[in-house]
From TrEMBL:
Alphabetic keyword roster: Endonuclease, Hydrolase, Nuclease
Origin: domain of life: Bacteria
Name of the molecule in the record: DDE endonuclease
The keyword Nuclease appears for this protein: yes
Residue intervals of the Tc1-like transposase DDE domain: 3-105
Sequence intervals crossing the membrane: none
Presence of keyword Nuclease: yes
Alphabetical list of InterPro entries matching this protein: RNaseH_sf, Tc1-like_DDE_dom, Transpos_IS630-like
Annotated organism of origin: Sinorhizobium glycinis
Pfam families listed in its UniProt record: DDE_3
NCBIfam families the UniProt entry points to: transpos_IS630
Length: 135
């Protein structure tokens, strides 16, 4: 079994929405979009930056009205700001660990995500890095 963290952050507000799931496919992405949609403030609209993974670009996805998907060019993960979030989670809470079993992996993934979401200043710092906004 696998454990995937599906996560999205809003660096302006320091908010995040995420799920830890045992699969990475269209159904999981649909659940993730629903989670993000619920987290978007009333009357607001989210732009979700994505790579072109098959489960991101499939026409089977039903994108909520309060979300717009913006796709990056192929093979360019360095352009996606959320990659900094994954690196932060690995560096601080997920790497160099020995997990007892699958449930322990899921528990650590959930704990890492929740620690991040509980620190909005971290989300703002990671997502609003000065270098990421240079022209």
């Amino acid at each position: 079994m696998w454990a995937y963290i599906f996560g999205a952050v809003c660096p302006r507000k320091g908010k995040g929405a995420g799920l830890v799931l045992p699969y990475c496919d269209t159904e999981a992405m649909q659940q993730h979009l629903a989670e993000i949609s619920q987290a978007v403030d009333e009357g607001a609209h989210a732009v979700l930056i994505l790579d072109q993974a098959g489960w991101h670009v499939t026409p089977k996805l039903k994108v909520p009205d309060n979300i717009t998907l913006m796709f990056l060019p192929p093979r360019s993960p360095e352009l996606n700001p959320v990659e900094n979030v994954w690196q932060f989670l690995r560096d601080n809470w997920l790497s160099n660990r020995i997990f007892k079993d699958y449930d322990d992996i899921v528990a650590h993934c959930c704990a890492a995500w929740n620690k991040l979401v509980d620190q909005p200043w971290k989300i703002m710092s990671i997502g609003l890095r000065e270098w990421a906004h240079r022209s």
